[in-house]
Fold each of these.
Amino acid sequence: MESRQASSIFEALSSDVRLDVFRLLVKNAPSGLVAGDIAKAMDIPSTNLSFHLKALVQSGLVSVEREGRFLRYRASIPLMLDVIAYLTAECCSDNPECCRAFRAESDVDARFLPTR
């Protein structure tokens, strides 16, 4: 992943609403949700939601597919994992002892952390 792509993704997630929408779509992966269900779950007017979904789609974090008269949105789990890998790729400058200490301090389930 290049810095420019990462910056675009971080910009898309910089809104509380977009971050919450993305997390909702991650929770509902791989099937995703139609726009109306997202609006209902988030208690957001459709016009506001459309603005936020457009930014997420442009970043590549979310894809959209037409289903009849509905639009189904899905989180790009592979891209999300690429972002996590991008952020952690150079963790602790290859100092495994330091990384182990940070893992021990973290509240993140060890299954989701790199094994370096």
Amino acid sequence: MMVHRCDNLRESIARELGAWYSTGLRIAIWGGTGESAAFLETHGLDAHRFPVVVDSDPGSAGTYVPGTGQIIRFQDWLLDHPVDIILIPCQWRAAGIVREIEAARIRYEGILTPREGHLVDFHAAEMVLA
């Protein structure tokens, strides 16, 4: 029963990511190692459709996301290459990452994070939780 639910959640997020990709919006994924790398591989975020991966760890810059192959760029790359949407795969780190994004003055239209099997707008979700 639990395996079926996990498969459904994984498929739901994969479908939502496909829908976001089809909009033509520029999307960056924040984080390319550990939990973020597992999220990318689990949900099929391949280097062709989702090539932009950034991280706040300068030590990760210039390396590749294990399993999916995107080059990881340092967060400052987004200053010269703005995106519309930033996807933060690690929900538990989202608030801290948003503070980093704002401190670095990185522009964006929206921030998405996974919650309960769906991608949600970070700012709207934070208002609901407050």
Amino acid sequence: MSELDTPTDVANDANDFRDQLPEDLNASEFVGVYKFPDNSRRRVPGYIYLGAGVVVVALVLAVGSDGPFINSGLLTGGVALALFGLLSLTSGWRMAIDEQEALEAAGVAVGFAVGHASAQQVWRGFRSRPTWRVLCYSNEDPPSRRGLVLVDAVNGKVVEHLTQENLEDWS
């Protein structure tokens, strides 16, 4: 940094890296119907982890594990990396149900005419199975009933549902 450069000149350099969301995840600049990204994208890093783990294990088995740089710790790391890759591959569920279909399934499950509703994607279980969590209110003004429904995003089945009288004070 020369005497003429100020800290702001250096910070505004064109070569600075700025962390930002990928195009397909940045919903703030999107106009139109938003398509939620599919969980099957997890498979790409899974293949990378699995491949790197297999290469490390093969290297240790070929060279031996008694050297200063290639030892049993590297073998353990390679096995752990390969196992994590397998977990990523098996967690890369392909979503067959979008939020609109989840809202429809929730409307059927709660058993009343739905007015306002919202869907949120969550994951459940060890292998992170994608699930839509749908909160819905009845069609009256103010709503007299509300429901919470979990819809499996892979096969569209209703996992759980709860309905109750609306306990909120709308006055």
